[in-house]
Amino acid sequence: MVSGQELCVGPADRPDKYRLVHLEGSGGEASLWRAEVDLAGDPETVAVKVLDPRHHEDLGRISARWAEQAELLRFITHPAVVGVREHFEGDPPHPAVTGRTGTTASDRALYLVMNWVAGLPLRDWLVLHDGREGTVRALRLLEQVADALDMLHAGRATPSGRPVVHGDLSPGNVMVRDDGRAVLVDFGLVRLTSHRTLAAAGTPGFAAPEVWSRGEYSPAADRYGFAALGFYAMTGTPPPAEEAQIAEQLFGHPFLVHTPPGQVEQILAGFSADPALRPGVVEWLRTLRGAASTSARTVAPARPPRAAPAPPAARRATTDYTEHMGVDAADDVEAQLADCRTGPGELVWSALLSRHWAVVRTWWTSRHSGRTYHVKLRDGLGDWVVVEMWLRGEGTSSRLVWANGAGGSMTECPTELAHWLAPT
User: Fold this and answer.
1) Which residues touch 66 (CB under 8 Å, ≥6 apart)?
2) Which of 101, 258, 373, 378 is the most buried (most CB within 10 A)?
3) Distance between CA 136 and CA 291 in Å, rounded?
4) Cβ-Cβ contacts under 8 Å for 187 (sequence gap 6 or more)
């Protein structure tokens, strides 16, 4: 990348066609950019996915497969599936005006241009829409995703009737548009149809076991990822690896505590290690929503009245599990974290002392082996971070469970969290 200069990409006949405006995210092999293209004299926003071929030994084979899968995506017209505009092989990102010439094959990159989806990843949307109503709305969003996946898996999206696999379902790859519609984005382009690969790729916690063990992608692998999305919508975290832990956490949710045994079995089948036992996404979500609707009617929507604030030491001793916001949240986070000397608790408390971050909200979540403490922070620029942690030793030590960032990132790494919270 050339510092301070506008970068462009494009096909051979128009190498400067797309102006790269902002890097939205990147992984080991690909990056996603918000870009602009001039149409009839005015700029239009698009998304450009860049696959760096230096990660692949056989550019010709990867390029041909990339083109085939991109063309397959262009057949798909569904409101919950991102639209594809074009694909091409071209020079790497370069300064505008002249483009680059004389590049070798190893310098070239593969590009997919898609419609821009204005909105938030489901991961971020859930943080802003938590609580009872947020869970209900999230399940409605997943209904739209299930409808799109059912169409793809059944082969109704292509003239040949071939099934299409998303390949990387995760809360970061479901966008919630400004108008409230859910849209599937960032299809795994080198694994769109059912097949096996030598190098497995996917989002930890959401990729099926056979993806990691055998590099096997199929509609059944998508079904596992969709069940993981349902778990995430209910709990705010990816599902654990063990089915017993999945059951304990999922059916400990107030919406699901009264789920009948038959429905419990049907819901857990979505996480089965045997791909053949996983139900279709529409059927699975119908069972989950039915169980949640039945149980939710037994849960009072209002929180109990908050008691008068107690001194910090007393609150630590009695362990207040209610939600706190505003000034109460600031008092609560001091009570819980002021004595913390390790892990995310120390990081969060130090960030608050720096005055660069302010606490917005605190709350607790029940898990299979206890309760975890959540803190939502916001900085002066409006960015936010949510940190989930275990508190040990009466609040003197802590361990990170998960952290979400407004930039669309998730991490289990304390070092990365420290980087997020460092003053800029």
Assistant:
1) 51, 87, 110, 112, 189, 190
2) 373
3) 12
4) 69, 73, 82, 166, 167, 168
Exposed/middle/buried for residue 322 (C-beta within 10 Å: 0-12, 13-18, 19+): middle
Cα dihedral sign, 18-171-297-361: negative
Q: State which amino acid sits at residue 219.
A: P
Query: Tell me, which fold does domain 120-296 have in CATH?
Result: Transferase(Phosphotransferase); domain 1 (1.10.510)
Q: How many CB atoms lie within 10 A of CB 252?
A: 15
Alpha-carbon torsion, ordered 153, 158, 159, 163, to 10 deg? -30
Helix-helix angle 219-235:243-250, to 10 degrees: 40
Domain residue extents for the chain? 7-115, 120-296, 312-421
pLDDT at 388 (0 to 100)? 86
Residue with tokens 């803190």: 375
> Which of 48-52, 187-191, 364-368 is the least confident region?
187-191
Indicate the fold that domain 7-115 takes in CATH.
Phosphorylase Kinase; domain 1 (3.30.200)
